[in-house]
């Protein structure tokens, strides 16, 4: 019995290998929504490679592609960034999308959003 347990533990895959690490950190404090098919969904967190938002995932089919408009409130302006995405997870309350075929122009727009939100925050919040 113990040998079976040891063998299964030895064959377990370490989840912290380089290939599975996030390429970009999650951003959870930005004021933003994800618009899919004309409906705005509140964003729980996002990064430059994907987004997790609150929605009834039963209407989203895994591995399907969709167009998303990420909308960010920066000062008194709303910045919209259109991007293609693929549904990677869908539950009763959340949907996770992975951005696909992100051109340099869109990557630059995401970087500007991050820079703008960092500039708006007090220094004490930036270091936290």
Molecular structure report:
It is a single chain. The protein is α+β, with helices and mostly antiparallel strands and 128 residues long. It has a single domain (24-126), classed as predicted glycosyltransferase like domains (Thrombin, subunit H, Beta Barrel), CATH 2.40.10. It has three helices and six strands; from the N terminus they run H-E-E-E-E-E-E-H-H. Strands 1-2-3-6-5-4 form a six-stranded antiparallel beta barrel. A hairpin with a 3-residue loop joins strand 5 and strand 6 (94-100). The termini are far apart.
- The helix/strand class is alpha+beta
By CATH reckoning, the class would read Mainly Beta
Which homologous superfamily in CATH is the superfamily? Answer: predicted glycosyltransferase like domains
Mean pLDDT: 83
How are the strands of the largest sheet arranged? 1-2-3-6-5-4
Number of strands: 6
As a whole number of angstroms, the C-alpha radius of gyration is 18 Å
Low-confidence stretches: 13-20
Question: DSSP strand (E) fraction?
Answer: 35-45%
Shape: globular
What fraction, in percent, of the residue positions are helical?
A: 10-25%
End-to-end separation: 47 Å
Count of domain modules: 1
- The CATH architecture would be Beta Barrel
Our count of helices gives 3
CATH topology: Thrombin, subunit H
Q: Secondary-structure element order, as H and E?
A: HEEEEEEHH
Main beta-sheet annotation: 6 strands, antiparallel, barrel
């Amino acid at each position: 019995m113990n040998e079976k347990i040891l063998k299964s533990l030895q064959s377990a895959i370490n989840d912290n290998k380089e290939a599975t690490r996030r390429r970009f950190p999650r951003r959870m404090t930005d004021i933003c929504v994800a618009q899919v098919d004309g409906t705005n969904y509140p964003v729980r967190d996002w990064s430059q490679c994907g987004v997790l938002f609150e929605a009834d995932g039963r209407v989203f089919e895994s591995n399907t592609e969709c167009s998303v408009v990420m909308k960010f409130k920066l000062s008194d302006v709303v910045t919209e960034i259109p991007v293609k995405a693929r549904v990677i997870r869908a539950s009763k309350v959340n949907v996770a999308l992975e951005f696909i075929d992100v051109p340099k122009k869109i990557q630059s727009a995401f970087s500007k959003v991050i820079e703008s939100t960092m500039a708006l925050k007090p220094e004490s919040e930036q270091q936290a």
